[in-house]
User: Which sequence fits this backbone?
């Protein structure tokens, strides 16, 4: 018979049948080691289950947060697009208002209408001032919302649009109420462009195209365009010169009355002769590069009492 020490522990398993008894003897230190391992296994399993549950909760939370952020980002991106649309509409409407104001000023200048007389009457145009706003930055921070700004811009669009429509009616009334003498002056004023194209040189001092590093006074307006482009009379009048000059090449000059004349130089072909009566918009020549020039364009001049003036102040279109 085996004798157990006091530090040993014995485990006996016995069934209710006549099967033999199963007995296992282990020492107390070994039993302590097994208990320690089981304890730490349970602790580790619990920590694992807690960590897994915690991470799963965090992942679910972050996924929901990510979807929310994506939704807000899409919303703000849509707001950005709306802001750009409203900004462009406001720019266009304000530009049209300023065009009306410029048109009125040009009419007054040409017809010699006093500003106070027009504004004091029922047909006066409401003043329009301020610079045209730049387009808003498309890279607006996605952390910002712009509901209030969109609402305000929407109100601005409606207000400016109503103002523009009102101004158009007042401008039409202003023109319709002009007397015959004023309308005749406007008809004889060089108020349209002689042709469409790119303005390569304006009125005033510029660097000479023929002498480097030297300033020269340019008495007219250069519009570059394709050869053969029609050149139109900018007002009613009578052709007083149609021929060739050394500097301007093929040139036409028209007398519009009221001490106003216009000239069109560097033409390829002249279509009107001296003494011909022309109407505003009549084709009088074709664009070329005759005379002293560096390329195809029309050189356009306006003279008042024989003195060259800036053609831009007469343009009404």
Assistant:
């Amino acid at each position: 018979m085996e004798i157990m020490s006091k530090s040993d522990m014995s485990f006996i398993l016995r069934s209710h049948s006549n099967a033999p008894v199963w007995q296992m003897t282990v020492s107390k230190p070994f039993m302590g080691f097994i208990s320690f391992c089981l304890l730490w296994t349970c602790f580790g399993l619990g920590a694992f289950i807690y960590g897994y549950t915690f991470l799963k909760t965090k992942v679910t939370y972050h996924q929901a947060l990510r979807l929310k952020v994506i939704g807000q980002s899409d919303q703000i991106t849509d707001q950005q697009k709306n802001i750009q649309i409203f900004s462009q509409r406001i720019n266009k409407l304000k530009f049209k208002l300023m065009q009306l104001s410029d048109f009125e000023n040009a009419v007054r200048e040409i017809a010699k209408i006093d500003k106070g007389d027009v504004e004091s009457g029922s047909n006066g145009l409401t003043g329009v001032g301020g610079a045209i706003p730049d387009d808003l930055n498309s890279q607006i921070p996605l952390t910002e919302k712009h509901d209030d700004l969109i609402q305000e811009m929407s109100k601005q669009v409606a207000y400016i649009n109503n103002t523009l429509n009102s101004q158009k009616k007042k401008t039409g009334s202003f023109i319709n109420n002009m007397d015959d003498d004023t309308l005749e002056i406007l008809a004889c004023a060089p108020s349209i462009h002689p042709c469409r194209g790119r303005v390569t040189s304006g009125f005033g001092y510029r660097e000479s195209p023929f002498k480097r590093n030297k300033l020269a006074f340019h008495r007219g307006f250069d519009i570059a365009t394709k050869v053969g482009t029609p050149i139109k009379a900018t007002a009613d009048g009578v052709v007083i010169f149609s021929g060739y000059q050394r500097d301007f090449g093929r040139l036409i000059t028209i007398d519009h009355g009221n001490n106003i004349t216009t000239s069109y130089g560097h033409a390829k072909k002249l279509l009107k002769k001296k003494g011909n009566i022309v109407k505003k918009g009549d084709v009088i020549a074709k664009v070329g590069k005759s005379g002293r020039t560096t390329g195809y364009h029309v050189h356009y001049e306006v003279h008042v009492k024989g003195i060259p003036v800036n053609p831009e102040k007469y343009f009404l279109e």
Remarks:
- Residues 9 and 31 are 8 Å apart (CA to CA).
- Confidence is low (pLDDT under 50) at residues 117-140.
- Residues 28-111 form the longest helix (84 residues).
